[in-house]
Design goal:
Layout (H helix, E strand, L loop, with lengths): L1 H19 L7 H16 L5 H4 L13 H7 L13 H13 L12
Length: 110
């Protein structure tokens, strides 16, 4: 079961990164928003959209909390101060959707 979830998760991430590649590159905003999304899912699965997406459509933690999240994973705060593009937040929401808001990962906690 764990191997299947791991394989599906890798596929979801690979597809998501490929869909976020623009001009042959993946923006720092995209990498950072992916880390924020995965951090939310690490803490709780499943999540409700209202718990992780603000009324303005931004992924919670992608602005003021970004430095702390990056540091938790050993990435310098200087990597990116905050996710600033609307596209970054849309990419983050698509990643949540691809993981079915964490429902795909919920059985790992059992």
């Amino acid at each position: 079961m764990i191997d299947k979830i791991k394989q599906e998760s890798y596929q979801i991430l690979n597809n998501w990164i490929a869909s976020c590649t623009r001009g042959g590159k993946v923006a720092r905003n995209t990498v950072a928003i992916g880390i924020v999304v995965l951090d939310h899912l690490r803490q709780k699965c499943p999540v409700l959209k209202v718990e992780v997406i603000s009324k303005g459509g931004e992924v919670k933690g992608a602005r003021s909390g970004l430095g702390n999240i990056l540091e938790f994973y050993g990435i310098s705060r200087g990597y990116l101060k905050e996710v600033t593009t609307r596209q970054g937040h849309q990419d983050g929401q698509r990643l949540f959707e691809a993981f079915n808001w964490g429902n795909n990962l919920a059985s790992l906690g059992d």
